[in-house]
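$ fold --in a.seq
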Amino acid sequence: MTTKKQEILDTYKEKSEIKQKVFSNTFEAFNMLREVLKNLAEEYNKALAKDMEKPRIKYKNRGKFQVSLKFGGDLLIFSMHTNVYEFDRDHHVWKTRYARASKLNTYSGIINIYNFLSDSFKYNRLNDLGYLIGRIFINNSKHYFVEGKRQMGYLYKDFGTKIINEEALRNIVESALQYILEFDLLVPKYDQVKIVNVEMLQTSNQDQVMQTGKRLGFQFNTDDIHGEEAIYTGH
């Protein structure tokens, strides 16, 4: 067998094994996340029942790779991507000793966390916007880190030492809930909604006429209360 052919086969086998392990670990974590969300919804609803006639926290299974948590007027959607990714050379993860020790350490699966308004799904407002507020990266050794907005961005900087588990996932979910409670729906700029056509009013109710999102018409980063996106920087 030629040297070049052997190199190709060896590289293929190595990467295939790593990526399969990454996918398996990410899917295992996603299924743990399902249980965390179910338990959290039940626990929070019990606590709220003392003060609220109708608690509004609801877990929903949306398929093999997607689940959601309705939290009042907000909807958190957790979506696992089925592919395995490598980081671009400008990503801050390369500043860590763990990443530099072996490129294989950085192959990661991703669980994205999106924030939508729950009414967007209730009323089938297909033009409404959601925002990526965080994403969980998991590698072949079940090491993980999170990058995202504010609370989501600075809690998990020990890539290479922390193992993804139910406790970690609960912390991530509760950080997301803290964030969306402070991330309010803002009135859209007047010029963006001052003109509508007849068809829009005849075929839709007023809620559907106006495209809705928490920061519609504003720059997402600069409008955040605490400024720019909090990105994982490592040690």
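$ fold --in b.seq
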Amino acid sequence: MRLGFDLTLQQTQKLIMTPELRQAIKILQYSSLEIVEHVKNQIESNPMLDFNIKTNSDEQDNSINWKEYAQKQSYTRYDGASSREKDDNDFTFEKFYKVEETLKEHLTTQLDISEINNEQRKIGEFIIECIDDNGYLNISIESISEQLNIDVDKVKEIVKLIQTFDPVGVGSSSLKECLKIQLEYKFIDDPYIYKVVENHLEDVAYNRITKISKELSITSKKVQKILDTIKSLEPKPGRGFSSKHDDVKFVKPDVTLKEIDGELVIIVNDNTAPRLVISNYYKNLLSSSDENTSKYLNNKFNSAMWLIKSIEQRRQTIYNVVKSILKYQIDFFKKGDKALKPLTLKEVASDIGVHESTVSRATNGKYIQTPKGLFELKYFFSSGVTNTEGGIASTSIKTIIKEMISTENQKKPLSDQVISNKLKEKGINISRRTVAKYRDELNIPSSSGRRRY
């Protein structure tokens, strides 16, 4: 064996992650709101960038008869009244803006109009602050008594008062108490229904009609009627009200799919990634400034050009991905969920000639507005099974299962095995366990839970 030190040259290809390449990758994976925010930040820090906005202000100024315009306007007097009455059909911001009332505000309003003294009002305000968003009192009466240094009976009295407020069942300490209050409000005095609420709520959840029937010695039909009444009650009386700390999520579609003359046309929305241009002022200043200023502007110019190129590349990549999805899932847009086919990121990546990770970034958090509704691009990627027509997505199978269950005989609901057999007749070969899995994902109970007497 020969040992020694040799100098050898080897040529290899490596991908170097330059700052520009990292920026392009980030821009591609940004959502519609994030890309707009990023563009705004870049415009603030880079004087070379500007929005591509075309205006014809001069032509507009010349075409407007300002004297005629002023004569048509209504003038407001110092007392705030208008010189002409407002038309009821005028569109104003106030007609569309709605302030939603929270549960605590709703309860406080009712407390304010109650005939109680200052001490009772103080107790009531404390209790309302202890009620959660679902309408339940999440602290014991004894604890309230200790914190306010007030007799327990006085606290109980105000709790009972609040429990008479709207929504019915608010201020309860448990689900059982909440349901009983609602039953009393509806003047239901059947003793069996109170026994079911007290001792068989878990059986109600799992539709164990036979068990309840045996333990209470009543007919199954009677138990079914009791369960229908209980399920008509509201287990969370406070959820109909808004919560100020809830986050409101807005979705801007990155792509719109429109049907024009029977043909589906892809439109990448510019408002999700505003088109940018180089500022003419700073472009002219680049050639007529001193060396330091010119160097600074030149760096900003290169940065601006790379950003414009990255945004345009993002737009083109999203367009190509949607075009490929449309090619594979054209039946979905014509026939609906049942026609959705299994599709992977790898297939789309191979179709448009990019890496699989690029397709993943281009679809994550991106939405498309279609004639069938608003969908996340990842909705069109799902596993599936082969059938006589080539393949069917799991989403389509779930839709078929849901339709089968919705049309079944409720006295003899379809078991998972029967559903599996029916799917095999349609050319969809899946096992009973897979049917049970899809049914659970659809939040549909088992056949015993769906049975009615």
